[in-house]
Amino acid sequence: MPRFAVCLERSALRAESYRCQAPVRLRDAVVTRVEPAGALVGHIAVPGDKSISHRAVLVGALADGETRVVGFGRSADTESTLNAVRALGIQVDELGDDELVVHGAGLRGLHPPEASIDARNAGTLMRLLAGILAGQQGRFELTGDESLRARPMDRVAEPLTRMGARIETTNGLPPIVIEGTDALRAIDYVLPMASAQVKSAILLAGLNAKGTTTVSEPVPTRDHTELMLDAAGARVRRRPNSVSLEAPPRLRLPEVTVPGDFSAAAPFIVAATLLAGSELTIHDLGLNPRRTGLLDVLERMGARISVFNRRKAGGELIGDLEIRSAELTATDVEPEEVPQLVDELPLFALAAAVARGNSHLAGAGELRLKETDRIETVTNGLRALGVRIRPRDDGFDVRGVPARPTGGRMPSDGDHRIAVLAAIAGLVSREGVEVGGADAVAISFPGFFDLLDSVSKR
Ligand code: S3P
To answer: Does residue 101 share a domain with residue 25?
Structure first.
């Protein structure tokens, strides 16, 4: 195969990718130029929530009978989950781009594939699946791409080993090998870090463990697993900082309606706030309070955001958001707030950069363990655009200047949230931003540039 055989040309935001994508992916090979925009105006909906989409397929695979998933958020990460459950013997019918039927095989119905399962970039998949496979009989190997192979897995291996599974990591990292057992024991586990992925892995293992599994967390994290298992008939008991689950005889989850992904909406919320004259409405958005910390932080900074049409589906809060532009003042994000906006902290940095005054983030050391070390990629990336931001061990300090940052070149390093941050920085900049590795957006939101293009005005 010729080395530079595939040339991806795309037009986005009056911009084009002008380098070819090699058959072997080169980091930051696809460069997209994002020009400054005037305002964001219009009505949009974003794809289904990625966290809930992963869980709907995984829990559907463990349920008895069919699970219809409506509003599935299709992305590279959630495709990895579909591939994984299929490799484990589960039939999934794709009725359309965002509608699926998962034919569950019951709580112990997964079968080891011959080959290892490749989670590619999806940390949520690898950690949640580890919990599920701990209670299935057989030997399973899980691996991932270069980024995922650098992310810690001992955080799930340790509690799952205590439950009775045999798990080998590669010096704490993927690939991991799981020898599942039908003799898992429930545990009472105090999470050493705030992580919904680790909490979920333990709860999912608890589905097949003898006794009551309890997970206590230092700070409440997203609770989609608890809500979905409850909807599927498991006995889930919730307290402010812990959750308990009794192993159920079976799960039934006939339908999951996936709300719009708050993390996919976040770049639009920030851009509409920062671009004068914006008026943007985002419909059918997931507003689970453990995901919407960015709204609280932006409101504190002076943003003008209203929520209407509040309703619930499958235990999840949904609503519509109306965002109008506003001038922002600085704020501090406190450690206990971090899990409520962990994936939106890169965008907070940009909002802080154009707010009046100095903002600080602390207690966010977990950012160093994401798809990239996001304290480094955010601070290096934004500094290159003229933003005054300094890294700290567990966060960053920003000296806000209420004016458009200059712009320049910002690499994504293959991290979807950083590619999105660079694109929004381009919209609000003076001279535009060349986003290196812009194609990383497809990890969570393949249609991101087209949707942005549809509402951005010069
Ligand atoms: C996720 C939990 C968070 C988040 C990730 C998705 C989930 O990770 O950053 O994007 O779906 O449970 P941690 O639980 O490791 O903080």
So the answer is: no
* CA dihedral sign of residues 67, 73, 79, 84: negative
Evaluate the omega torsion of the peptide bond into residue 175 and state whether it is cis, within 30 degrees of 0. Answer: yes
Span 140-166, pLDDT tens digits: 999 999 999 999 999 999 999 999 999
Distance 199 CA to ligand 1 centre (A): 10
Q: Which residue among the candidates 343, 413, 415, 439 is catalytic per the annotation?
A: 343
pLDDT tens-place string over residues 194-245: 999 999 999 999 999 999 999 999 999 999 999 999 999 999 999 999 999 9
Give the number of domains in the chain.
2
Looking at residue 26, what is its pLDDT? 46
CA of 38 from ligand 1 middle (Å) equals: 33
51, 59, 127, best to mutate for ligand 1 pocket (most atoms within 8 Å of CB): 51
CA 214 to ligand 1 center in whole angstroms: 19
Given a contact cutoff of 8 angstroms between Cβ atoms, the answer to whether 238 and 95 are in contact is no
Q: Give me the pLDDT at residue 28, please.
A: 64
What backbone phi and psi angles, to 5 degrees, belong to 302? 110, 10
Domain with 216 in it: 50-257
255 Cα–ligand 1 center, Å: 23
- 126 shares a domain with 205: yes
If asked whether residues 37 and 153 sit together in one domain, one would say: no
**Opening angle at CA 79, ends 417 and 125, nearest 5:** 70
Whether 29 and 19 have beta carbons less than 8 Å apart is answered as yes
Two tokens, residue 130: 């580890």
| 332 classed as catalytic | no
Kindly list the protein residues whose Cβ atom lies closer than 6 A to any atom of ligand 1. Answer: 51, 124, 195-197, 200, 221-222, 342-343, 366
Same domain, 99 and 157: yes
Give the chain's mean pLDDT: 94
| 222 CA closest ligand 1 atom index | 12
For residue 131, pLDDT beyond 80? yes
End residue of a domain, out of 257, 287, 305: 257
Interval 95-118: pLDDT, tens? 999 999 999 999 999 999 999 999
Final residue of a domain: which of 225, 257, 289?
A: 257
Same domain, 232 and 358: no
